Amino acid sequence: MIKLIDANNFSKDFEKQGIQLFTLKNKNGIVSQITNYGGRVVNLFVPDKNGVFEDVVLGYDSAKDYLEKPDHFFGAIIGRYGNRIANGKFGIDNNEFLLEKNEEENQLHGGEKGFHAVVWQAKQISESVLELTHFSKHLDQGFPGNLEVKVEYTLTDENELQIKYFAVSDAKTVINLTNHSYFNLSGNFNKSIENHLFQIKADYYLPVNDKMVPVGILENVANSPFDFRKLKTLKQALNKQHKQIDLGSGFDHNFVLDDVNTGFVAKVIDENSGRSLEVFTTEPGIQFYSGNHLNNLEGKNDVLYQKRAAFCLETQHFPNSPNQTNFPSTLLLSGEKYFSRTIYKFSVYK
Fold first, then answer.
1. If 0-12 CB within 10 Å is exposed, 13-18 middle and 19+ buried, where does residue 287 land?
2. Largest Cα span, the chain
3. Short-list 57, 144, 65, 58, CA closest to 99
4. DSSP secondary structure letter of residue 9
5. Could you confirm whether 180 is annotated as catalytic?
6. Which of 119, 212, 214, 315 has the fewest CB atoms within 10 Å, i.e. the most exposed one?
């Protein structure tokens, strides 16, 4: 049953900016509500094999909750740099830039006041399209360059949530934008996602150190829990002993995508509900996070989110790329146009 959140729950001023809630719909009845606070996907109602619509993303019921409750980046646009930058610093042309650190010695997801924690300017283009824009000043969270960013959410009639990212800077900088939605295809957030089937088209993943930062090498997934080249349940993967799994109490790793020319990079299926999610992207990597640190968080409709209540598939360039010359570059030149596209496509598995 589709029970939308009252837009008044998101009518709130924050740092002299007005927070709002917007509703997108397609012709097939799929509905998503998105707030301009952090550009967050608040809910997303998609049908199961019996045509029953349920919300499949974690989040909160109000702007107040997003501002005051523990922030796990639910549904947010992440920037300027998605994932971790080691020791909160990097260099461009022999100039060192010191970043705001918000995870011990690292910067995570753009810093404490990254794009997830600002109010975006919003314009609803149509019933199915929302445009968000933000101006990030030079040295915002430590990053160089005045950066103009635009993100376009589209709910297509092919049952896709399509996200397009655009940006331009007036100075050399680094950029790595992504979306941090947490999915549970069962539509029941009391259920674990351990029985979901996962496929990730990657022969390699990036091993991490004890700070969850890639050590700089590519590791073959063969004969390891990281081999998702064929569909298997999360439970099957977690049952294999591996020191990398122990580091993060589950998966929190970037996978090196085989071939993004076709766009298709991952698939998840919940057999009970019949819901299927396919991921398409222009990015070279995808961060698979298995909800390791959810712990008694009171979310929408007073549901307590527990460990493994949801998963994230964050399409992106590799973590800590500005400090790893062998990783694909995230450098954006002055005046150069940044573009990235990701599609989350929903269907019924039969």
1. buried
2. 59
3. 144
4. G
5. yes
6. 212
Q: How far apart are CA 96 and CA 113, in angstroms?
A: 20
Helices (H), 18-167: 63-68
Among the listed residues 278, 283, 314, 317, the single catalytic one is 314
Question: 344 forms bridges with which residues in the sheet?
Answer: 161, 279
Residue with token string 């399409």: 315
Confidence category of residue 261, pLDDT binned at 50, 70, 90? low
Burial environment of residue 350 by CB neighbours within 10 A (0 to 12, 13 to 18, 19 or more): exposed
- Spatial contact of 165 and 338, defined as CB atoms under 8 Å apart: yes
Q: How many CB atoms lie within 10 A of CB 14?
A: 15
Residues 6+ apart with CB under 8 A from 226: 205, 219, 237, 242, 244, 251, 253, 255
The CB density around residue 336, as the number of other CB atoms within 10 Å, is 13
Residue of 180, 196, 253, 317 with catalytic role: 180
Residue 193 has pLDDT above 70, yes or no: yes
The percentage of residues in the chain with a pLDDT greater than 70, rounded to a whole number, is: 99
Q: What is the pLDDT of residues 99-133, one digit of tens each?
A: 999 999 999 999 999 999 999 999 999 999 999 99
Q: What is the CB neighbour count within 10 angstroms for residue 126? A: 11
Cβ contacts of 8 within 8 Å, gap of 6 or more:
none
Q: Is the pTM of this model over 0.90?
A: yes
Within 10 A of 239 (CB to CB), how many other CB atoms are there?
Answer: 11
| Phi and psi angles of residue 280, each rounded to the nearest 5 degrees, phi first | -125, 145
Is the per-residue pLDDT at 241 higher than 90? no
Q: What is the reported pLDDT for 240?
A: 87
* Closest CA relative to residue 200, chosen from 115, 280, 128: 280
Fold of 7-348: Beta-galactosidase; Chain A, domain 5 (2.70.98)
Query: Cβ(21)–Cβ(43) under 8 Å?
Result: no
Query: Is 72 noted as a catalytic residue in this protein?
Result: no
CA–CA dist 274, 348 (Å, integer): 5
> At 260, is the pLDDT very low, low, confident or very high (cuts 50, 70, 90)?
low
What residue segments make up the domains of the chain, in order of their start?
7-348
Residue-level pLDDT at 349: 84
